Amino acid sequence: MKNILVIAALLTVSFVNAQAFSGQGDQKFQVGANLQSHATGINVSYDYGLGENISIGLSSSYALGISDELEIVDDPAFKDRFDVKARFNANIGNVINIDDNFDLYPGLHLSLKNFGGHVGARYFFTSGFGIFTEAQFPIAKYNNDLTPAEELNNQFSMNIGVSFNI
Fold first, then answer.
1. Quick one: signal sequence residues (predicted)?
2. pTM of the complete model
3. Could you tell me the CATH number of the domain that includes residue 122?
4. Which residues pair with 30 in a beta bridge?
5. In CA terms, which of 80, 106, 109, 161 is 20 to 30 Å from 133?
């Protein structure tokens, strides 16, 4: 019962704000599924608006389901499944002006595993609740000789899920 009340309170608070990205002080929280070759997992991200079209944030992913095709002898360790990223976004939804509730955000991230880029889009159905999709890709890996387990967070991945304007 306590969990239901917490979720209801979070959803109620999230419905108070407006638009997909409104600029400085704007905050977005996203929760979704992480889809990549040989694994699925969860992804959580938080973005904070610094200016009209610039935001910074954090993103974290954890690989849950590992495919048997990956040929890993032992179950991957936590350090192979988990990744955290510091991110920078250019929010250009108001520049391309498709819809007030739509935001397109290309960006760069620096993670525990690599330096990479991402391109995402989110659409808000109400002032605080929407959906998002994001593609992430490594630009420079810290290590080029990766084991199959280390490859989990060093490859192209897609995230899909819900977005909250908090």
1. 1-18
2. 0.78
3. 2.40.160.20
4. 45, 163
5. 80
